[in-house]
Amino acid sequence: MVRKIIHFDLDAFYCAVEEQRHSELEGLPFAVGGRPESRGVVSSCSYAARRFGVRSAMGMAQAVRLCPQLRILPPDMREYALVSRRVMEILHGMTPQVEQLSIDEAFLDVSERSEYASVLARKLQAQVEESLGLPSSLGVATNKLVAKIATDVGKAASSSGDYPRAIQVVPPRSEAEFLAPLPVEALWGVGPRTRERLSAIGILTVGDVVAASPDELGRRFGKLGRDLYRQAQGIDLRPVITEREAKSISQETTFAQDVVDSETLKRALRQQAAEVGARLQRSGLAARTVTLKVRWSDFTTRTRQVTAARPVHDGEEIGRIALDLLAAVRERGEAVRLIGVGGSGLVPAVRQMSIFDTADDAASIERAAQLRDAVKRLRTRFGEGAIKRGSEL
Ligand SMILES: [Mg+2]
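A: This is the predicted complex of the input protein with magnesium ion.
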């Protein structure tokens, strides 16, 4: 299934907020940041200031040399955080699948929406500007990597001298072509040092990475090299991770009456584990740690957890771990009031895959994805109970 990912980024966020409060600043060169005499740095600068060559992260003293009439405002982080929350609320109005990256940036997964992602992006941009007066730029692509780069490319292409308000769409299957002409530091994980080492072997653009031998990249740069090879082709399977999912996923059951029967407890645990596994897989996550929670009839609660050798997202496997934990904490005949299982220490499940997936691996990943999609469709149509693993029955 092709995903629809939007990267949302406010344009010169701190400056835009200041312009809202101080309309006299509109169109003037100004910057938010520390004072030049105390070696302050530019946190954000207006587009009028950028015309003088002022850039964020530049020393304020240098900024003033470039633009002597530059107005300097101290940052008001409380206000920016407040406005940021309002922006994020608008994003959540479009989909709950929002991953906030920073105070002014977020990814949205709008795959479940029937509209074109580009239409939704346009809508979001208009909503944020109409209700808060804040301009933004958006990138639309099939994954997070390409969507984020698209935003940057869209902004850079703007020559209005005003807020860019860019919307850059990268259609499915054109990712590699879109990335090819960009400098290699557009990819994640390429800092100045790696850039130099890459340029020493003639790799300057993302297209050069694609043309390089994956074996050589792996030999010279290890995991990073293999990762770059994958990124350069526009491949990025990482899911959008919401704040709630990032913490933990768990299920628990309080029994109407204390339960002594071991089989009943095991069945409840297996069902819960299957549900935790299904939710992990829906989010593209795996859990490093599996936790069992048991409340005895005297209301004392015991939790016991184990950190698996590799992150797990398979319901049966989580179930096996939970059953082992139960066997370790419970004496036969002890009455249980509540039982539950959870996964925490969540990581993207795709990290388990190698970049050099062989054809077989790619095929089995594809098959597993098809199976998950089929199960999902059945459950959407006939309810959660429509299809279960044998172990849950
Ligand atoms: Mg921004």
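Residues 13-76 form a domain with the MutS, DNA mismatch repair protein, domain I fold (CATH 3.40.1170.60). The radius of gyration is 26 Å.
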